[in-house]
Design goal:
Elements (H helix, E strand, L loop, with lengths): L16 H12 L5 E4 L6 H5 L8 E9 L5 E7 L6 H4 L2 H7 L6 E2 L2 H8 L19 E6 H4 L4 E3 L6 E5 L1 H10 L5 E3 L7
């Protein structure tokens, strides 16, 4: 994959340990990616303001838990809405292993499970879930995307890579994602 040269350089001394571990793991798995620095973003609306400066599909990441306190990281296109109540019922819930109503995980659970703060949730974070208790659910369109963007453990940078490379990276790390079409239950 070829990336445009419009990114801002990331200062190597400004990389925290989790972020550094992520880059080393990506490189060990020979995954092509490109880093972009940008102003901090905490919401999808703020990330939309960056549209055009970072190529590829923007995603949203929701850290949720079910009634039995099982954790899920739901990754879907940023512009797509999602009805958690509908996801908690019927065939979708059965397929994903969801038991009862979904609610958002709190900041402490997010930090304990994935090592990130609110606003920096990303699909790479499952690699730091050493107990493998968080189930990654990735929208089909992200898996098929020639380029999508995710935070590299912090919300003032993005990594652009293909969905195929991301899935290959997960496999290299001994992790997997459940692929799911969120559009079927979106509002």
């Amino acid at each position: 994959m070829t990336f445009p040269s419009m990114s801002l350089a990331c200062d190597a001394k400004d990389i925290d340990p989790y972020e550094q571990r992520l880059y080393k793991r990506l490189e060990a798995c020979s995954v092509a990616y490109h880093r972009f620095s940008h102003p901090r973003v905490f919401t999808v609306e703020e990330s939309r303001a960056l549209a055009g400066s970072v190529p590829g599909l923007d995603i949203r990441n929701l850290f949720v838990r079910d009634r039995k306190r099982r954790f899920f990281l739901l990754c879907l296109p940023a512009q797509q809405t999602l009805d958690l109540k509908s996801l908690s019922k019927g065939e979708a819930a059965e397929r994903l292993g969801i038991s009862g109503r979904l609610s958002f995980g709190n900041a402490q659970e997010l930090n304990d499970r994935l090592g990130v703060a609110a606003g920096a949730v990303n699909p790479f974070a499952v690699l730091f879930d050493e107990e493998a208790v968080v189930r990654l659910v990735l929208d089909d369109s992200i898996a098929e995307s020639p380029c999508f963007n995710a935070h590299p453990m912090r919300n003032d940078r993005s990594i652009a890579l293909s969905g195929a490379d991301f899935l290959r990276f997960l496999a290299c790390e001994g992790r997997k994602a459940v692929l799911f079409d969120f559009a079927k239950i979106s509002v």
